[in-house]
Design goal:
Layout lengths: L1 H28 L14 E3 L6 E3 L4 E5 L2 E5 L2 H12 L2
Antiparallel strand pairs: 1-2, 3-4
């Protein structure tokens, strides 16, 4: 009878410990209040012509001298190309 109670107590303790460990691991995954998303969504790049920063995915791409350049607008991109061709 005492063995049975001991086994039940051990099983109960193991279940409680697993619940506590699970809740601790889930609390580490939660975001800070007011923050919907903590992962980096996009990187900021600098326009080489007008020197403003903008999200890379919104940029206008140009491969120039083997380098990938990103511009904030197609107008800046065209001005950059025009300035380089005058040289």
């Amino acid at each position: 009878m005492i063995r049975l109670l001991l086994i039940i107590g051990i099983i109960y303790a193991v279940i409680k410990i697993r619940k506590v460990m699970k809740s601790l691991s889930e609390s580490k995954k939660q975001n800070f209040p007011g923050m919907a998303n903590t992962r980096i969504d996009d990187v900021m790049v600098k326009d080489p012509f007008c020197e403003v920063y903008f999200p890379k995915r919104e940029g206008h791409h140009l491969k120039y001298d083997g380098k990938d350049l990103y511009f904030c607008s197609s107008a800046c991109r065209e001005k950059f190309i025009a300035g380089r061709s005058e040289r």
